[in-house]
Amino acid sequence: MRFSFVPVIALLMPILEIAGFIIVGKALGLWLTLGLILLTSFIGLLILRSGGLGMVRDLQNASKTGAEPAAAMISGGLRVVAGILLFLPGFITDILGLLLLVPAFRALIWKAMGPRIVVATSFKSPNFRSGPQGAGPGKVVDLDEEDFRRDGPNSSPWSPSRDDRDLPKP
Fold it and tell me: What is d(CA 17, CA 10) in angstroms, rounded to the nearest whole number?
């Protein structure tokens, strides 16, 4: 069984944040510490608000230039995560959020994660067909009403069979 650090980090994070509050509170004082927390939360909200729009803009630019959209998606996603971390009260989450705002740090994360991520950039493969299956140039037959007739019994599952005629209708 593989050991996961996520539960350990989730349990240690509040303890580390409280220790960070105590250390910063002793160094700066109560009101300055609270002001700093409110300021970083406000900055986090601003980043969250602009982060989604920035990611859409980066994706549009990547599609116009033909670049790979995965890097733009990861960079935008990490900016949104940075906004969330800055919004959360705590100095350790603020430090992590500020690190994620640095483009070089995001590039380092992309370099580590990039080989494991596959992004489908185009569906234009030889086996891809848009529309009904089998439809394409040369396969569509257009018939008039008088050109079509059905030979044999009506085997449609939606038509009432002869055995169902005497059943009461709902």
Answer: 11
Distance CA 153, CA 156 (A): 9
CA angle centred on 64, ends 63 and 67, rounded to 5°: 55
Q: What's the pLDDT tens digit per position in 30-42? A: 999 999 999 999 9
Report the alpha-carbon angle 120-58-117, nearest 5: 35
SS3 for 113? helix
CA distances from 36 to 13, 14, 44, 59, 85 (A): 19, 18, 12, 33, 14
State whether the Cα torsion 44-5-104-59 is positive or negative: negative
Pair 43, 49: CB distance under 8 Å: no
Q: What pLDDT does residue 153 have?
A: 61
Report residue 111 as tokens.
């370099």
Range of the domain at 105: 6-116
Q: Is residue 153 part of a domain?
A: no
> How many structural domains does the chain have?
1
Matching residue, tokens 């989450």: 93
Q: How sure is the predictor about 73, in pLDDT bands with cuts at 50, 70 and 90? A: confident
Q: How many helices (H) and strands (E) does the chain have?
A: 5, 0
Tokens of 115: 């080989």
